[in-house]
Amino acid sequence: MLVVSNFVVNAYDENLHAVNPSHTVMIGRYTTESLGVLDRGALLRAAAGGAALVASVALRALLGAGSPWGEATALLSLGLTGLPIVLGAARGLLRLQTNVDELVSLALVASVVLGEYVVAAVVAFLMVVGSLLEEYTSGRARRHIEKIIALHPRHALLLRQGEQLEVPADSLLPGDRILVRPGEIVAAE
Length: 189
Prior knowledge:
Elements: E1 2-5, E2 8-11, E3 26-27, E4 30-31, H1 40-63, H2 68-94, H3 100-113, H4 117-150, E5 155-160, E6 163-168, E7 177-179
Antiparallel strand pairs: 1-2, 3-4, 5-6, 5-7
Helix pairs in contact: 1-2, 1-4, 2-3, 2-4, 3-4
């Protein structure tokens, strides 16, 4: 059985045990191993990058658009948020795995080449915040699906010749009659 949620794909056997749980699957920018756990370092880099971006915009407003202090803080923001994206894109390309990082990296490099440091910092900051939100919601969806799967009964009460036999749910065959008590989850489809 495959469970798919927000690009999370897990395979389960008939007993609802994860098939090869150590196997890592690349999903967009994240792997199944990293989903659901927000990286504290990434959060701190995003917060610091956002603060530097706000400082850059404020300095440019106060000192003028060409202010070296405004440009320097924009580059600081870009370094905090954009550099991990560019490095991730390079690592992905070396492993022959592509995702959105390559396209974002092209936009960042083009913006820097054109001298638009604030634009590059804004793009990088928005991508990092978006990916953190994606990671958080994907992790939540994954945990909820796993809780639902855990509710699936492993045994059923098979009715055979007036007797109730407790049998593994995966041993039921089409046409078998089972007893389902009020409040119980049906062990078969």
